[in-house]
Design a protein that fits this description.
The chain is an alpha/beta fold. It is built from 27 helices and 21 strands. Helix 15 packs parallel to helix 17 and helix 19 packs across helix 21.
Length: about 725
């Protein structure tokens, strides 16, 4: 992996003479107070402006300010016209556009595609302050406002939609957000390296269209480089027949179309030899001057196998040490994706988090609480990235799997800053963590192995023998933090990766004795191996081992503390039987979940490719490869959620019906061994619930439309119910 230029080593722009702004300006009046006649860069965000490093636009804005640029913020603009995008005038260099800290569709809609009434990233939690697909809408309005200004899109929404992707809310494969937004460039990942280099090169009078060599960027190319080698992605990981394929090594070459239809055995023998020859030839190419051509947008929209294959290739090309450029065709144009950016060093991370944030919402929100800020105001981000590779999560796709750490001194200084300056601090740090609680300073044993690795996870199916699991730096940080004057408690709110924690008994004891506030949330996600294998999560046995260690450490500390496990309903690959077994496990272990999570297919996640295609891209994908069970039908998704809340009487009718259709009526009864009772308490159903339950269709359990129950038995049950109702009506 080549070294990267330190983001703080650039010569500062001339506008540094204006000094540091208390808040980045959001109005002309604030610009006047700072003595500015214009902004060099204007950042547009779908979130309320909170000057805190946990809010992406504040972090990027302060970073650009440290480079000497004048940065303005347009927060949650009225997107119905371009007027709100003119409020700060024309930016001298570019517009930076993001949806905010969350994908706008996940922010606005529930797993059942119902619009949410509130928004945690808005003052007063007011809903409706951002449009669907915010990046596209904001970029288009910025273009209308100032047609000649470069527009750069970024943030998690743009990052996870950088190629053709499945959109759960429209149930369609959508084009790259770069295409639909009409932006000039897309930056993906955390993007500090990209945005700093872009700003300085544009300030040096380079054109946005000349910036083609910056890692972590995507843009349209009219012509592909002639001296580079193009590699068809289907030659790297053969997805099955994808058109005419000729074997150049055979004496009598033929295509699968010209081959007689009865000669299927010859075709099966022919494919592996061809794939092996191609791979050996491809590896001779210099990776630095090779690019992979992904199936085009038109191809992935018409063939779900090619979509799953494209997802698989994208995830194989995410290591900054060995990733190649990717190209995808849209009509007659190509989108070019440069390899991922080089991770930030510890020194860069320290300076980034030491920038002069006020750690407060902008003064215009005074009197209105912002829920997302209230949640993180006393928390500290100690690292970035995740090497877990969970298929339903997008952290790895956005932040990468190489952990980027802050130094212990930097973290301690931030705790002291919170203690001394943040209003309302009571002495309790709510979290020291990040994407996970306990990956701090964990890394591959050597950089050479790390740079060459193409595994999607360092901890699945087991912990890689090359991964260091020493938690002592984290234990040292915890001990030092809790001993600071004025600090009463340091809690750990980020999710603990328990399969790593069991490797360090010292960490478990420190965590349990000093950093748990009565309850510790962890995420086994499921109990059944069938589902866990599609999630790339460890078996439930690892949870049992951690539970034993947790309870032993709790007893040793003389405390009463409990584990709160989190589970996901309706994940691709999950059958009704899997959810039933999970519900039985929950009851056996005395868990009653108040809040449960139903799987939402987020853009670019591996599990989303599973959901859309019905295939498993963790393995080689072909038309004949494994078909996954996928809970797409809304009724099935609700059933899976109901199993997680087996104790709620409102779910009992749907569970009774499902258990009978599954042949598990033995779980219905009034004893301890039963999952749900046979009776229905009064007042626990709406007046029409019984009728709706009786007339419900059989539960769809596969994406192919197979039924869980027997159709004839279902029809008979329906007839009996209707006959009974008619008799009552006549009476």
């Amino acid at each position: 992996m080549e070294p990267a230029k330190n983001i703080f080593s650039y010569r500062q722009f001339w506008a540094k003479r204006f000094g540091i702004a208390k808040y980045l300006p959001m109005s002309k009046e604030e610009m006047d107070d700072l003595g500015w006649d214009s902004c060099d860069i204007i950042l547009v965000t779908g979130d309320a402006y909170v000057d805190h490093p946990s809010f992406g636009m504040a972090l990027i804005g302060r970073l650009l300010e440290s480079q000497g640029f004048r940065v303005g913020i347009i927060s949650q603009p009225d997107w119905m016209s371009a007027e709100a995008f003119k409020i700060l005038g024309r930016p001298n260099l570019f517009f930076g556009v993001t949806a905010g800290n969350m994908d706008s569709m996940i922010n606005r809609y529930t797993a059942d595609r119902r619009i949410r009434s509130d928004d945690a990233y808005t003052a007063g939690a007011e809903g409706g302050k951002r449009p669907d697909h915010s990046v596209v809408v904001y970029a288009q309005r910025a273009r209308e406002a100032f047609n000649d200004v470069p527009i750069i899109i970024g943030g998690i929404e743009a990052s996870l939609r950088r190629i053709a992707h499945y959109d759960y809310w429209s149930d369609k494969v959508k084009r790259s957000v770069l295409h639909d937004s009409k932006a000039d460039m897309l930056v993906y990942g955390n993007a500090e390296r990209q945005i700093v280099e872009i700003a300085h090169r544009l300030a040096a009078r380079e054109s946005i269209h000349e910036l083609t060599d910056i890692r972590g960027t995507a843009y349209f190319r009219k012509e592909l480089p002639r001296d580079w080698h193009e590699i068809d992605s289907t030659h790297i990981d053969e997805p099955g027949h994808v058109g005419e394929i000729t074997n150049p090594y055979a004496e009598n070459t033929y295509t699968s179309e010209s081959k007689p239809a009865t000669s299927t055995e010859a075709i099966v023998d022919f494919q592996p030899r061809l794939e092996k020859k191609r791979i050996s030839r491809i590896e001779k190419f210099d990776r630095a001057t090779s690019y992979i051509r992904l199936p085009s947008y038109e191809q992935v929209t018409s063939d779900k196998v090619l979509y799953a294959h494209t997802s698989r290739i994208l995830h194989l090309e995410t290591n900054p040490g060995n990733a190649r450029a990717l190209v995808q065709r849209y009509g007659k144009r190509d989108i070019w994706l440069n390899p991922p950016p080089i991770p930030l060093t510890t020194k860069e991370m320290d300076r980034l988090f030491a920038l002069p944030y006020t750690r407060l919402p902008h003064t215009q929100y005074e009197g209105n609480k912002i829920p997302a800020y209230e949640m993180i105001r006393f928390s500290i981000n100690i690292m970035r990235g995740c090497f877990g590779g969970c298929t339903f999560c997008s952290i790895t796709e956005h932040e990468g799997r190489i952990i980027q750490n802050r130094s212990e001194d930097s973290i301690i200084q931030e705790i002291e800053t919170i203690r001394d300056t943040v209003p309302g601090f009571t002495g309790i740090i709510s979290d020291l963590g990040g994407p996970t609680a306990n990956m701090y300073r964990l890394a591959c044993k050597t950089r050479e192995i790390e740079a060459a690795c193409r595994k999607p996870s360092c901890v699945y199916p087991g912990i890689c023998h090359n991964l260091g699991t020493d938690h002592s730096p984290l234990v040292s940080l915890y001990k030092r933090a809790r001993k600071l004057p004025g600090i009463k408690k340091v809690l750990i709110g980020s999710g603990v990766r328990y399969d790593l924690a069991v490797e360090s008994p010292e960490y478990v004891e420190e965590l349990v004795a000093h950093h748990v506030g009565g309850y510790l949330k962890i995420a086994p996600e499921h109990t059944e191996e069938n589902t866990l294998s599609k999630m790339m999560k460890p078996g439930i046995g690892t949870y049992d081992r951690f539970k034993e260690m947790f309870e032993a450490a709790t007893k040793k500390a003389g405390k009463e503390q409990y584990l709160i496990p989190y589970f996901i309903a309706a994940h691709p690959g999950t059958t009704n039987e899997d959810m039933m077994n999970l519900a039985v496990w929950l009851k056996k272990n005395g868990f009653r979940a108040d809040q449960v999570q139903t799987f939402i297919p987020s853009p670019m996640a591996t599990a989303s490719a599973m959901y859309y295609s019905g295939k498993n891209p963790l393995k080689r994908v072909t038309h004949n490869s494994e078909d996954l069970v996928v809970a797409k039908n809304l009724k099935v998704r609700r059933l899976h959620k109901a199993f997680l809340r087996y104790h709620d009487p409102r779910n009992w009718p749907i569970l009774r019906q499902a258990l009978k259709e599954m042949g598990r009526a033995d779980l219905i009864g009034n004893g301890k061994r039963h999952l749900i009772p046979s009776f229905q308490p009064k007042g626990t159903l709406d007046k029409n619930d019984g009728e709706k339950t009786a007339r419900a269709k059989p539960f769809v359990t596969k994406h192919t439309g197979e039924y869980a129950g027997k159709g004839k038995e279902k029809k008979k049950a329906g007839k009996k119910k209707r006959t009974f109702k008619k008799k009552n009506t006549k009476k």
